[in-house]
Amino acid sequence: MALAEIGYPATDESLLPMRDQVLEVWLSSAFYLEFESKSSVPESRSAEGVPKIQGRYRRCGSQQGNALFAITRLGLADNRSDGLVERLMHWQWQDGGWNCDRRPSARISSFNESMLPMLGLAVHAQRAGDGAAREAALKASEFFLCRRLFKRRTDGTVINPHWLRPKYPRYWHYDILGGLVAMAEMGLIKDPRCADALDLIERKELPVGGWAAEGRFYKVSSSMDIKTRFGSISPVDWGGIGSRRMNEWITADALTVLAAAGRL
């Protein structure tokens, strides 16, 4: 995913073993099994297949979506990638997104679980000319846009204050800068419903120039085996964090979306 995001040259055959390992995991037989349930389903039952509760598949679409996005962007897609597309479209909720919340009360898609499937379907559709995948990606975009990327539809309040603090890498987490990058990727950044998020990013520019990383989801370590409260291990430091310290990766994303929106 990191290589795909930073524009690593496509079609590097040394990445094929990694691609094959990823596809073997996310297209295993467990993801083709389903079972109906009327109550909450513990995570320990995941080996039995994908649960369907209240008519909605409870699946972490960010995992298959992440794989589809990275493989396609790196020029490594083959016919097996179509399996990721089929699974994502099969699990997509009526409101356009995805969610792995196994409680029956969960009736709205997850921002965290929906952004990467949307991007994966979009880049696949562009590569393969897949109209159905493009429609599925656009349906997912409406899930974000109708909430102006971070606001409740009911009263316009902020859904999650953590989304207002840009971080990099985001991994599977959502924030408004990541949402804007996704809209720019799909050619939707000039939709008027992106304006509030763009305004907020503009206001976050530092007095000395650039934008800050206001937190992180990783710990730097050369060992991939240690446990960490951050959830992810990175062999490199992605520019550090601090509210007054420019982070080059956050700055690159901010400049990208503002340029695409015609605001530079």
Describe this protein with a few key phrases.
single chain, 3-stranded mixed sheet
Task: Summarize the structure in words.
This protein folds into two domains: 1-146, no CATH class; 150-264, no CATH class. Strand 2 and strand 3 form a beta hairpin. The model has no long low-confidence stretch (mean pLDDT 95). The chain is 39% helix and 6% strand. The protein contains nine helices and five strands. The strands form two sheets. Strands 1-2-3 form a three-stranded mixed beta sheet, with no helix packed on it. Helix 7 packs across helix 9 (248-260). It has helices spanning 2-5, 16-26, 61-73, 81-91, 111-128, 131-145, 176-185, 195-203, 248-260, and strands at residues 34-37, 50-53, 56-57, 218-220, 232-234. The relative contact order is 0.10. It has 264 residues and is mainly alpha-helical. The protein is globular.
* Overall shape: globular
Instruction: Tell me the number of strands.
Output: 5
Radius of gyration: 18 Å
Q: Please count the helical segments.
A: 9
**SSE sequence, one letter per element:** HHEEEHHHHHHEEH
Helix content range: 25-40%
Mean pLDDT: 95
Gap between N and C termini? 28 Å
Largest sheet: 3 strands, mixed
How much of the polypeptide forms β-strand, as a percent range?
5-15%
The class by helix and strand makeup works out as mainly alpha
Read across the widest sheet, the strand sequence of neighbours is 1-2-3
What is the number of domains?
A: 2
The residue ranges in which pLDDT falls below 50 over 5 or more consecutive positions are none
